[in-house]
Amino acid sequence: MLTLIFVVAAYLLGSISFAVLTSRAFGIADPRTYGSGNPGATNVLRSGKKLAAALTLIGDAAKGWVAVMLAVHIALSDIQVALIALAVFLGHLFPIFLKFKGGKGVATALGVLLALNAWLGLAALATWLIVALVFRLSSLSALTAAVGAPIYAMMLGLPRVWVAASVVMSGLLIWRHKRNIQNLLAGRESRIDKNVSQ
Q: pTM of the full predicted structure?
């Protein structure tokens, strides 16, 4: 019962959309109504409000970090921590407050990874940054980091259930980027510098 309560609480925390809340606070359009229609930091950036996008990124990452870090801090079992990690991530992807239509999960996944293991999170972040600097493609950066995360988790010798959780998150993250993958293959994916200028 206690595990169920923690998992539900993590899901509800993950369901909070900082993209929507930040947009309302800054008086800009709902991110679901323009660009990719995705309630995430990259789409909020298309509004031209860099601070709003940055706060969205921080908020979405923080909720993943807080949920998992609390689970680790109170010494829950590895399985319980893994379930909470998945719950907060799924909350972002399928938020009950937005009729189960949420973001792609990149920032929240990063927060989860940082809480599971700082080196794991930093490795994933470094992968994102390197690919972004070289190719200027946010989606390609996210996809590359998603593929790398479970590999890094195994290299760090993390508990198997945590590695399994990272595999599930990576799979879902890649699935949420299916349209971006199509655009990448067709050479139509928008670049980061273009997003910033719009």
A: 0.94
